[in-house]
Amino acid sequence: MAAADLLTDLAELDKTLTSIETVLDPEGKRVQIAELQEQASAPDLWNDQDNAQRVTSKLSALQAEVDRLAGLRQRVDDLAVLIELGQEEDDADTLAEAGRELSRLATDIQGLEVRTLLNGDYDERDAVVTIRSEAGGVDAADFAEMLLRMYLRWSERHGYAAEVYDTSYAEEAGIKSATFTVKAPFAYGTLSVEQGTHRLVRISPFDNQGRRQTSFAGVEVLPVTEEADHIEIPEADIRVDVFRSSGPGGQSVNTTDSAVRLTHLPTGIVVSCQNEKSQLQNKVAAMKVLQSRLLEKARRDREAELNALKSDAGNSWGSQMRSYVLHPYQMVKDLRTDYEVGSPDAVFDGDLDGFIDAGIRWRRQQGER
Q1: What phi and psi values does residue 368 have, to the nearest 5 degrees?
Q2: pLDDT in the model for residue 110
Q3: What is the pLDDT of residue 255?
Q4: Residue ending a domain, choose from 64, 95, 117
Q5: Structural domain includes residue 122
Q6: Residues 107, 150: one domain?
Q7: What is the pLDDT of residue 91?
Q8: pTM, whole model, 2 decimals?
Q9: CA 118, CA 113: separation in Å to the nearest integer?
């Protein structure tokens, strides 16, 4: 590619990055970082562990975002110098390297551009994610556990704090369900596109005849509630059951009845938590999940009222949205966006950004917000 063409394309990228900087406001984030650093240095920070985790997690995420923006800006500036050097020296190798860096830079800037599309009411909040095994028996339970690991690995890759609240183990293998939170700015907006039914096709490791099995797992993503949401739940509306925590295969992992199950009587919504050390901590965690589900129910009720006024409801939640095929070929494909990759192992190891970015763009195009 000629130097003039490289400079033209770089100017377009520079323009895109400038618009991203305008939306994401790195200077404003630096002010927030300074305030959070002051809070993080307080000697009594860890007296309130929930608040400490919130502060440190937000600080880490904001710092990473500012660093990412600064790194991209530096790469744009450096690339301009490289192109000019290649042009002055008439050096084909230098211009070729500049072309490769331009391609890499375009991919990275486009990935960050997706972040500017997260402007829903709850997008900036932490996320509560629940995974449930569906049709497919033991393969579905195993698949649900694979998805749990996938999302936890994705969180780990990004440095996001994740906390598992409750895991219900299946009898033979895998899990019946699991609920966890991802604590990071815009965790809900980012992960909400993962909601729906996931489908796995493979040779079943649990079938002694080696037959191909199709199984399903459901993913639900909710925003974490905040005090400003004012979700009041009268004590009379909740039934509290306590039970003994258990691990895989029903093996007891706790000798006291510390696990808590909450049933919201007016709606029938049931949540449980067993991973905390005390009954009180489990009840507090379960209440957070219950509030999130009631908040989401209220949102869906409002959405249903609006959809009733339309000829097309346009509600994709709960529909089958992604296939993971391990046999007779290797492919993971999103059925909404047509985004696909040929390396399921990488996806199950947390390499989800391509799918998430495509989903966010698709949602904006569909006007679901």
Answers
A1: -75, -20
A2: 86
A3: 54
A4: 117
A5: no
A6: no
A7: 92
A8: 0.69
A9: 10
Question: How many Cα atoms sit within 13 Å of 232 on the Cβ side?
Answer: 2
DSSP category for residue 246: B
Mean pLDDT by 10 residues, the chain (369 residues): 91 94 92 94 89 83 89 96 93 94 92 84 89 95 97 93 92 94 90 95 92 94 73 88 71 65 93 86 89 85 62 43 95 96 97 94 77
Residue 123 within a domain: no
**Nearest 5°: phi and psi at 258?**
-100, -20
SS3 167: strand
**Residues 82, 155: one domain?**
no
Answer with the one of 82, 117, 152 that is the final residue of a domain.
117
Give the dihedral sign, CA 233/238/243/245.
negative
> How many Cα atoms within 13 Å fall on the side-chain side of residue 176?
10
pLDDT at 113: 87
Which amino acid is it at 258? S
Q: Which pLDDT does position 247 carry in this prediction?
A: 65
Shared-domain flag, residues 71 and 148: no
Spatial separation of the C-alpha atoms in residues 73 and 69, rounded to whole Å: 6
Domain count, the chain: 2
Q: How far is CA 284 from CA 86, 185, 207, 259, 329, in A?
A: 62, 22, 41, 11, 45
To which residue do tokens 């300074």 refer? 34
Domain with residue 113: its CATH number is 1.20.58.410
Q: How far apart are CA 154 and CA 347, in angstroms?
A: 9
